[in-house]
Every structure is written in structure tokens, then in C-alpha cells.
Amino acid sequence: MASYDCSKCPGYCCSYPLIEINKRDVQRLADHFGLSFAKARKKFTYKDPEAEYALRRKADPHFGRICRFFDTEERRCTVYHARPSTCRKYPTTNRCGYYDFLKFERWQQDDKDHIASTDNG
Ligand code: SF4
Ligand code: SF4
Questions:
Q1: Which residues line ligand 1 (CB under 6 A)?
Q2: Pair 11, 72: CB distance under 8 Å
């Protein structure tokens, strides 16, 4: 059983510097927003030396930068049902290092809503 609970996490993995997605993911996002593939590609992704399609990011008060689809107030994904396959699969193990750190910090500060910051700008 997984030792983390994404519903209680402020979305650290959505702030990774490079979130690579694939062509099918771009198409899924295009369908979700009623856009053409080309428009969705331009609006939601950029080409990185390491990835043909990387999710665009925006400023985040806790982690520096975060995925453009992340609601920085509610701390959740706004395209959950259309989210890319990378996001569906992650994390691939039954532990999440950030969640372990978060649990420890929340326990230490006696604050179940504390957001343990680490800058991924
Ligand atoms: S995988 Fe880890 S960092 Fe990502 S939302 Fe879940 S608990 Fe948070
Ligand atoms: S699409 Fe959603 S789950 Fe994936 S990185 Fe962006 S906000 Fe996170």
C-alpha cells in the first residue's frame, strides 16, 4: 500500500522543472479544452532539449514554479480527468520522498496543513 496521500499534499511533484508528456497527452488536453492539437501544443507545452512536449509552468508561492494547470490556491490539478499519463503514473514506487518530508514537518510543527517549501524554480 502506498505510504503517501496525494489529496493531502500541496502538489510538490507538479513543480518538477521538467514534466514531459507525449503526443496522446497533448491530444487529450486539446479534446478537453475543445482546441486543435496545434493550438493545445502551443498553449500548454514547449519544446525542451530533452522533451518534444514539456508542460508549461507558472509562478508558485511555495515551490517557485509549477505546472500551468495547477490551482495554486486550492493546491490541486485543474485537469485531473484529462491529466497526462506521466501524472497518472507518478510516483512509480509506493513511497514519495516529499510526502515523507511533509509528514515529518507537519508533525514537528503540529500543523496538519503546513506546506513544506522547497524551491523548484
Ligand atoms: S506524488 Fe508525492 S509529491 Fe506528488 S502529489 Fe503525491 S504525495 Fe505529493
Ligand atoms: S497536469 Fe495536473 S497532475 Fe500533471 S503536473 Fe500539471 S497540475 Fe500536476
A1: 4, 6, 9, 11-13, 90-91, 96, 98-99
A2: no
